[in-house]
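pasting for ref
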Amino acid sequence: MAHALRGRSAVVGIGTAGLGEAPGRTAMELLAQASLAAIADAGLSLADIDGIFAATSSHAFPTLSVAEYLGLRPRFFDGTNIGGASFEMHLLQAALALDAGLCDVALICYGSNQRTASGRLVSMSETQWHEAPYRPRHPITAYALAASRHMHLYGTTRAMLAEVAVAARQWANWNPDAFARGKLSREDVLSSRMISDPLTKYDCCLVTDGGGACVMVRADRARDLKRKPAFLLGAAGAHSHRSIAQMRDLTVTAAAESGPRAFEMAGLALGDVDLVMLYDAFTINTILFLEDLGFCPKGEGGRFVQDGAIAPGGRLAVNTNGGGLSCVHPGMYGMFLIIEAVTQLRGDAGERQLPRCEVALCHGNGGTLSSQVTALLGSAATVTQ
């Protein structure tokens, strides 16, 4: 039986700013511009916002900074930061606050000028004492360990990993907002510079600027606003470790816990999902999450993605915006999973629009495969059945 929170709140506005490169703009400016765009998209005003949910890699007290910059005095706020999965968790937290009447209009927001401010990857993953002697390069060392272990146990190959990057690029080529477009073959991925064995340059996400935001309200109000609402059907999170050295099994993430709980809350099954948005910081992520969420058995993810299975025209639509590998990845990517899911549910994705999209799964990842949050969004048809 579905949870009482199912369908009681919805995303009614989305916005982005400075995707790719935004020279001269700060992280807060990008966050604010995306927030204003999302509020306008919902047909609301800044004065309507009385709930703030934010996490950034630039601000120690994100909700304080956001409220001050936007000139808001929110009734409810939460700055939970579990890395890139924060924003999927914020969907659930905002739904709880809205349902309890603690706020009426919730803003979930993020911004980073990571690319133009530093020109290189900035990691929030502090080295743990038991890892320090090995001088890891975080976060990629951790993901390379997971990839190596998966290859050892299940026969996964670098060519299978490359299929993930190629599929992402094919989707990106249909997305005018994607930062990396153009031809990318499996051979291009395999021959690109090795960064952390077995992961090459094209196995790694982009380093970009970008701001993203969404606005949530209760379902009764959502139906009266100007854009098609995307209803929150279910969401759940799970932790497994902080340091990769403490991960019990490098091939099994806490998505195996968050996924089933989110589906139970939504009263849905895997076969109901039309779109799968996965946090693809590295190609191994997509394979691990497809397995742990149940789309294929453990160990079969590499074979599952072969032959264009998750590319345009494949059997499962995965990361239709191009993902973190080819669309955008400004440090913490989870917000952009939500934005693409809402875009597809509205039918606004242009050339890459799926012929049917009633249920979208967003799966966020934080730290070094540390935090996992699964959220299911649905169209109006999913809450009127």
